[in-house]
Each structure stands twice: as structure tokens, then as C-alpha cells.
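RECORD CONTENTS
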Amino acid sequence: MRKLDTKTIVVASHNAGKIREIEDLIGPFGFSAKSAAELKFEEPDETGTTFEENATIKALASAKASGLPALSDDSGLVIDALDGAPGVYTANWAEKEDGTRDFAMAMEKVEKALAEKGATDAKDRTARFVSVLCLAWPDGHVELFRGEVEGHVVWPPRGDKGFGYDPVFQPEGYETTFGEMSAEEKHGWKPGDATALSHRARAFKIFVETCLKA
């Protein structure tokens, strides 16, 4: 495992919500970070079929373009009744014809697909959010960290916090959706704490243990 020995990194993302969450997580460690969007890097084609492959594609692209270590995230909602969909194509379900993304539309697609399966009870709507972080260096070295959180899909959407599919995902053991939680509640983790709630915070905790601690 390679330790991260610089406080300057690139957040390899063009997704404003994802950039905000990663910056919230790395902020307490004193990182100076710029996003791929801010640096006007082109978005690489995500041709992988796994979260790990797509995270690696994005991190390596930003690392090589910037000459700095880059941290990417590839994440998605995996729904059991839909055979794992939308999964690695989570963002694609939100794509509109003009190339913009509409997650309200995507959540409706999910609900329609579940209804067609007859999945109306919570026990038939089990799902998990998956996040894979990739830390890549300009020389091509990569480290991967995977986090998951179990829960189920609810309808109608609840809450206007977070982003993406957060309003329809209720994590196991909670009465609220990610869309109803503050950033602190959703992540459930900060330096020194032993717990982590969100998939991204769980992946980040492994990243901290692996690459930041001596």
C-alpha cells in the first residue's frame, strides 16, 4: 500500500454533489483540492463494467492530466429485485436526450421498474449503495477502497438534501432517507469516530486507514 505524502490532490469528478461530499470528507485532513470540473479536464469515457474499473479510469485520467494524485469515486444504487440495476449505470438512468441528468426522472424509472416486478413491500425492495474510491498517482499506481450500506428503496421520495437517489434510499436501521439527513448524519463519521454510515464515508474510512495514517 502506498501512503499519500502530499496534501494537494485532484478530486476526479464533474458531479457537483459528489465533489461537495468528497471535499467534506477530506477537509478535516487539511487537503488542498481542486476538482476535474474546476480544472476543465474532459470527462473520460467510463467504459468499465464494475465500480472499480470506472473509478480507476477517472482517477488515472485526472492524475495524468494534472501531475498530482487524484481521488475519484464511482458509486451507484444496486437493487436486488432489479438484478443489481441500475448499478454501474446509476447515472445513465438519469440521462436526458440533451445530455443533462434528471434524477427525479431516474427515481421514477426505478419505481416503475419495481412496480413491474410487483415489489411493493420493503422486504422486496432491498438495495445497497456502493462506493469505490480510487486514489491514483501520475505514474499509474492506484489504490482502491470499497464501501457499502444496506437499506431499501422507498416511494415517494423524501427529503431535499444530498443528491442523486438519496431521497428514495432508507438505510437499514434508520427511519429517514439519505435525502432527509444532514451531511453529518449521512456520513456518520468524522476523524476519530469509529462509525461510518454512508457508502462513501465507509470507503473513505478505509482510505484514511490505508493511505493517511502512519
Remarks:
- The longest helix spans residues 51-66.
- The beta strands are 8-11, 32-35, 70-79, 126-136, 142-153, 169-171.
- The two ends are 12 Å apart (CA to CA).
